[in-house]
Structures are given as structure tokens and as C-alpha cells.
Design a protein that fits this description.
The chain has 2 domains: 4-174 and 197-212, Pleckstrin-homology domain (PH domain)/Phosphotyrosine-binding domain (PTB) (PH-domain like, Roll), CATH 2.30.29.30; 216-332, PH-domain like, CATH 2.30.29. 22% of the residues lie in helices and 31% in strands. The chain has helices spanning 4-13, 24-30, 34-45, 89-93, 156-170, 186-191, 216-229, 337-345; strands spanning 53-63, 66-78, 81-86, 117-122, 128-131, 138-141, 148-152, 201-204, 210-213, 241-253, 260-271, 274-280, 300-307, 311-316, 325-329. The chain has a 9-stranded mixed beta sheet. It has a 4-stranded antiparallel beta sheet with strand order 10-11-12-13. A hairpin with a 6-residue loop joins strand 6 and strand 7 (148-152). The longest helix is centred in the middle third of the chain and has 15 residues, at 156-170. GO terms for molecular function: kinesin binding.
Length: 348
């Protein structure tokens, strides 16, 4: 251990997304290759001597306790746990986290060391994995609110690869087998079908961890919500969601030394007639079993919506992935002017 192929794969995956800024400590991790990376894992991250590093991924992450703070992390999957090496700026981002993060190393802040916070989720504590729409993100759930993390990969390939690796590692866990199912009688088998709600598609792994995938109803609910935002101008039957993608909205900050741009996470939804930007809650839904009350905000909150027919042009950046797109819309004051004119002019 480890094989040449695994070393090469982990080295290739050890690249920070170019559009996201990280602290010096994580830049150091991203500069490691091959053996140095594995040695770093065993020397600084791993909790058990005989665990093996199986997969590495860079991703934005959200915690259930701090749903508004998205932070960059290096996610390391081993045969014992999932480790999240976090950007050290995260600790100072929210003063309400003092109970969540034990700041034992605060006396080292001014030294020449670059510290990273490492959040550990042991595989034995893992209960379920919820995969988001179109594999744009996934949520890992443990046994308490402290153990719920969403990885916003914004990339179906990265999500798929991580889930496959996680399933392979979970297969190595020795867990007690589930009890044998009790034979149901005829009446209980056919009498409790009136729930009226279609459950999400669940796959229960041999390690008893649930992998939950969204069903078609979620797209239906989203289409209904989008139609509602369109003031009922569209027939719900003819409304098709053509694209759902997690993206960033670029806000230019002027007046600074150099015109910087801040990236605001948004969910972009394209229908046959409109383009929408939503603020989506990626961490609170579906509700964890221990949640005593619903989240403070809805899953989808409309941030902006424009009609495709008002789209004037689309400007494309020539940089490498991720691609920047600028949508330029006609600034029409009264959007429904033409519609009202035709109604008045041609009668009912």
C-alpha cells in the first residue's frame, strides 16, 4: 500500500478549483504529490495507524450548525473515516461557532505555523448519504446535528466518484448483520399503503448506511414552485425544467485597490421561457430525524428571474473551466406591456 495507480490518482485529484481562494495551510496541502501526500496524511491527519487513504477531493462544504458559511475543504476518505481539512478562515467567520469548534490552538495564531481545522466523521457513525438533484451535491448525515455536512461539488462526476469510493470503503466495515425481517401477515402487508407520499429512492448498503436519491416528485415540486414565481402565466403542464445547475453569481466590488469580484452561490434553473436564480438551502432538507422544528427558511428562495425573450445577448469568457457567462437582458420597464395591449385591443 498504496498502489502506483492510487498514488497517481490522488496526485491528479489534488488540485484546488481555480476560482476559489484558500488559506496558506491548504495551499501547502495542494502542493504535495505522491508519497509526500500519503506521508502527510499518516503524519498529520489519520487517527489510526493502519488506515488507508483511498480518495481525495476538493469541494466547498456546509455544516448543519452554520448553514450560511460555505467553506473550501480538502476531503480525504480513508478506510476508517472521512476527514475535512478546512480553511482556517472558517473558524473566524461566525462568532456563534465557539461551542462547535474547540479553539485549543488559539495561542498559536500569531506564530509561523499555519493551522487547519480538521473535522472528522468516522465511517461507523455514518447513517445516510443524500444525493442532490442531478448529482450537483451530496449530504452526509451522522448521529447528531454536529455530524451533518454537505459537499457542494457542483460537478456530477466528482459526486459520482466519491459515492462509488465511499460504497467500496463501507463494504470493508465489519458491522453486525441486520435482524431477519419478520414475516408480515396479509392485512398489514396491504393495509398500510395509503400514505399518499412517494418516498425518495433509497438504496440500503450492506453496511446499513442509506444512500438516498431524489425521485421524480422533487422535479415536479420544483416545477410547481417555478410556475408559482411566474405569476401563473404559464401552464404547469407545458413547463419543463431544462437545466438545474449550482453556480456562482459574480458581484464586482468596485472601489477596492483592484476591482475584485465576490462569488455568491446560486442555483440556476432554466425553463423553456425563463431563467431563474434561486438561493437554495442545501443542508437542512430533507429534515434529519432528530430535527424538532422545520428550518427557518424555505428550500428555494427566488433571487432573480428573467424572461428568455428579453435576453439580448450572452457573452462568453475564454478562460478555462469554470466558464463565465454574462447574460444581457433588455431593460424593459413594463414587461407585460405587449400582452396587455393585445388583450385590450382585441377584446376578451
Amino acid at each position: 500500500y498504496p498502489s502506483e495507480f492510487l498514488m497517481q490518482k490522488i496526485t491528479e485529484d489534488n488540485q484546488i478549483p481555480v476560482h476559489l481562494h484558500v488559506s496558506v495551510s491548504l495551499q501547502y496541502v495542494a502542493g504535495l504529490k505522491g508519497n509526500a501526500l500519503v506521508e502527510f496524511f499518516h503524519g498529520n491527519v489519520a487517527e489510526v495507524e493502519n488506515e488507508e487513504l483511498r480518495h481525495l477531493m476538493w469541494s466547498s462544504v456546509l455544516f448543519y450548525k452554520t448553514p450560511n458559511v460555505e467553506v473550501m475543504a480538502c476531503v480525504l476518505l480513508s478506510t476508517k473515516a472521512i476527514y475535512f481539512l478546512l480553511d482556517d478562515s472558517f473558524i473566524h467567520a461566525d462568532e456563534h461557532q465557539s461551542d462547535f469548534w474547540n479553539k485549543e490552538n488559539s495561542d498559536c495564531e500569531n506564530s509561523s505555523f499555519h493551522l487547519s481545522c480538521c473535522f472528522v466523521l468516522k465511517l461507523n457513525d455514518l447513517q445516510s448519504v443524500n444525493v442532490g438533484l442531478f448529482d450537483q451535491y451530496f449530504r452526509i448525515t451522522g448521529h447528531s446535528a454536529d455530524h451533518i455536512v454537505t459537499c457542494l461539488t457542483r460537478d456530477s462526476y466528482n459526486t459520482h466518484t466519491f459515492i462509488q469510493q465511499l460504497m467500496a470503503v463501507l463494504s470493508l466495515l465489519a458491522r453486525t448483520p441486520s435482524p431477519e425481517p419478520v414475516d408480515k401477515d396479509f392485512y398489514s402487508e396491504f393495509g398500510s399503503k395509503n400514505t399518499g407520499k412517494m418516498e425518495n429512492y433509497e438504496l440500503i448498503h450492506s453496511s446499513r448506511v442509506k444512500f438516498i436519491y431524489p425521485n421524480e416528485e422533487e422535479i415536479g415540486d420544483l416545477a410547481f414552485l417555478v410556475a408559482e414565481k411566474m405569476d401563473g402565466l404559464t401552464n404547469l403542464q407545458s413547463l419543463n425544467i431544462l437545466l438545474y445547475v449550482l453556480a456562482f453569481q459574480v458581484n464586482h466590488v468596485e472601489g477596492s485597490a483592484q476591482n475584485t469580484s465576490s462569488l455568491q452561490p446560486k442555483t440556476l434553473i432554466l425553463t423553456s421561457s425563463d431563467l431563474f436564480l434561486f438561493d437554495e438551502d442545501y443542508i437542512s432538507y430533507p429534515l434529519p430525524e432528530f430535527a424538532k422544528e422545520p428550518p427557518k427558511r424555505d428550500k428555494y428562495q427566488l433571487a432573480d428571474g428573467r424572461r428568455i425573450r428579453d435576453l439580448d445577448r450572452v457573452l462568453m469568457g475564454y478562460q478555462t473551466y469554470p466558464q463565465a457567462l454574462t447574460f444581457v437582458f433588455d431593460d424593459v420597464q413594463n414587461q407585460d406591456l405587449m400582452q396587455n395591449l393585445t388583450l385590450d385591443h382585441f377584446g376578451e
